[in-house]
Amino acid sequence: MSILGFLLYCLVAAVCAGIAEYIVPGRIPGGLLTSIVFGIIGAWIGASLMGSMGPVLAGVAVFPAIIGSGVLIFGLSLLSSVAHGNR
User: Fold this and answer.
1) Cα 38 from chain centroid?
2) pLDDT tens across 49-76, in order?
3) What does the angle CA 55 – CA 18 – CA 7 come to, to the nearest 5 degrees?
4) pTM confidence score
5) Contact of 30 with 5, CB cutoff 8 Å
6) pLDDT tens-place string over residues 41-50
7) 21 DSSP β-pair partners
8) What are the CA-CA distances from residue 59 to residues 6, 9, 73 (Å)?
9) Is the dihedral of CA 18, 20, 39, 54 positive or negative?
10) Contact 68, 45 (CB under 8 A)
11) What's the domain count of the chain?
């Protein structure tokens, strides 16, 4: 994978995480770098759960990445609310 390919992968992963943030209750703390990390981890989770269905951009299966990022955001926001005592 070239540097340009990696940058495109990170960009697509960040966009998928941003879409998931609007769908799922919960917020991604931080900025673009955190969205990229959530997107990459979410793409891995989504690919593990669903395979590579739907369109693939820059090596990222878009629908599984959005769903995997949503699962990650929801899980971390749930853990955060439990840890802080919020309901």
Assistant:
1) 4
2) 888 888 888 888 889 988 888 888 888 8
3) 65
4) 0.83
5) no
6) 988 888 888 8
7) none
8) 9, 6, 22
9) negative
10) yes
11) 1
Tokens 């990696």, residue? 6
Return the structure tokens found at 44: 């891995």
What are the DSSP E strand ranges found in the chain?
56-57, 60-61
* Parent domain of 65: 3-84
3: confidence class by pLDDT, cuts 50, 70, 90: very high
| In the block, residue with structure tokens 């690919």 | 47
Q: Is 31 exposed, middle or buried (0-12, 13-18, 19+ CB in 10 A)?
A: exposed
- Shortest CA distance to 66 belongs to which of 43, 87, 86? 43
